[in-house]
Amino acid sequence: MAATTMFHALSPDMASLEQYQWKKRPVIIFAPSEQDADYVRQMAILKQSQSALAERDIIVLSDTSPAARGQLRTRLRPGGFEVLLVGKDGGIKRRQNRPVLSGDLLATIDSMPMRKANLR
Q: What's the mean pLDDT in 82-86?
């Protein structure tokens, strides 16, 4: 999986993550701008762990434009910077308002029943 296919801007008209259900684990990053310090740090953390993330079927979706009033931003109501991990079942598995370390993200994923089943 090429690294460039893992990172995507979240389209303002995307209303659901249904297209990823049972295929990918979206990590959604909401930030006030691309220059936001937490956003820059989070992207650097994720880019350093690309192969481990790809192995776990991660796709990273970023929304750095609150003014665009994206449908998912409106529905999920992030407060400033926020990171969400969505499982393959579509449920939110982790949500926090500071950058997530790769080890913490990978541990959360590795504890999921579907991931454990894939490793067997």
A: 97
